[in-house]
Amino acid sequence: MKNIYYDTCSLLLTADTLFDNPEEQVIISSVSLRELEDIKNSDKKDADVKYAARHLTRILDKNKGKFITDIYYDLSELIKKYNLPDNNDSRILISAYNYPDEIYFCSNDLCLKSLATIFFDDEHIVSVAEESTDDYTGFKEITYSSDEELAQIYADLFDKEISEKFGCLINEYLFIKNPQGEIIDKYKRTENGFEQFQYYKTESYMFGKITPKDAYQCAALESFNNNQITMIQGRAGSGKSYLSLGFLFEQLEKRKIDKIIVFCNTIAAQGAAKLGYYPGDKNDKLLDSQIGNMLSSKLGDRIEVERLITDRKLMLLPMSDLRGFDTTGLNAGIYITEAQNLSVELMRLALQRIGEDSICIIDGDTKHQVDSILYSGANNGMRKMSEVFRGCDYYGEIELQKIYRSKIAEQAELM
User: Fold this and answer.
1) Count of H-run helices and E-run strands, the chain
2) Cα–Cα–Cα angle for 323, 288, 347, nearest 5°?
3) Which residues contact 219 (CB under 8 A, 6 or more apart)?
4) Please, what is the end-to-end C-alpha distance for the chain in angstroms?
5) What distance in Å separates the CA atoms of residue 213 and residue 246, rounded to the nearest whole number?
6) Per-residue pLDDT tens for 49-98?
7) Does residue 388 contact residue 361 with C-beta atoms inside 8 Å?
C-alpha cells in the first residue's frame, strides 16, 4: 500500500478520482480539512473554488474510512528551524515530514514542491495529473514516401485482416498524405472495413453554403451526417460552431429535425471579471451571456435569435435546468457548446437527456480553453466522454487542425 499525503490544492484537483486506486492510502492533514471549511465560507474566494471545496467535502463524507486524517500539532519550532513561512502550507509540509510511515507528498503548487525538497527526495514528491495525456483526435494520418509504399498502403487498407494494423477504431478517420504533407485521400473505419467518404457540404437559409476548407472539416460534416452524436474539437477560429450550427440549421430547414436545443453552461472566461446580476428572464440572461453573443454573431443579430426562440425553433437550456428534461419525442438537434467547461457529472447528466429520435453535436476545446479548475484533468467531461464513447458505431469525433477566422486569430495562438 502506497501512502499519498495530499496538500489542499491537490485534493481539490483530484476530488473525483481520489479513491480510485485501491493500492493507495489517502492521507489528509487536519490543516487541509480546516482550509476546506474556510474556503467554503469565505467571502473572498472565487465561486468556482468554493464549489470545488463543497464538492470535495461531499466526496470525503461519502468515503469515510477510506482516508487517514493526520492530526496537526504545534510545529512552530520546526517552522522556525527550517526558516519556512508561517502558514498552512508549511504546517501541512512539516506534518507530512513527521508522519510515522513512509509517504509520497502530493502537491501541484510549484513553491510548495520546491520547499518539499528540504524534507523529501524527488522520488517522494508527486503531483496530480491536471492535463490528460490522451492524444486521441478522431483520426490517424499516414505519409507515404514512394509510389510503391502508396500501393502497399492501399493493398493493406482493403485487406480486412491486415487493415487492423492501422489501429483505427470504428468511425475513426484515416488520412493518406503525400511526401509534401498534403492529404490526397480520406477514409473512415466502419464495421465492414475502410470506406472512402465524400466531400460533404451543407447549405441553409441562415448560413448559406458551407463548403469544408480541409479534410478535417469534411470529416466533421461527414460525422454530423452519419452519426447520431459527434464531438468536434479545435482551437478558437477553427470552425467548430460555424460547421455545427450550419449543419443543424440545414437539418431544421429541411424539416429533418423540429427544433434546435442548446445546452449551455455559461461561465466567465478564465481570468475574466464576473459582471454579476443580469436583469430579465432566463432567455434574457442567456442572451446577455457568451452563448447569446455567439448565436447573435453567427445568425446576424440578437433579434433573429429572439425570433427563433419565439417560434419555438430554438431553445436555450442552462445546465442548471437539465435534470428531468428528456428530448424523446422532440425530434431535436442538441447542441452542447463550450463543452470543455463541463465536469464529468454535468456531461453525464446532459447526455442522459438525449432520446433516440434526437441528434447531438458537442463542441469545445479541452487543450486551450478550459476556464475553471472544476473542469480540469480527470474531471473534464469531454475527455471522459471521448474515452467512453469512441469506437461506438453511432459516435464520431474529430479535432480540427487549422484556424481560419483571421491571420490575427492564428497569430494570437502563439501568445
Assistant:
1) 15, 17
2) 30
3) 138, 139, 173, 186, 188, 197, 396, 398
4) 44
5) 14
6) 888 899 899 999 999 999 999 987 777 888 888 888 889 999 999 999 99
7) no
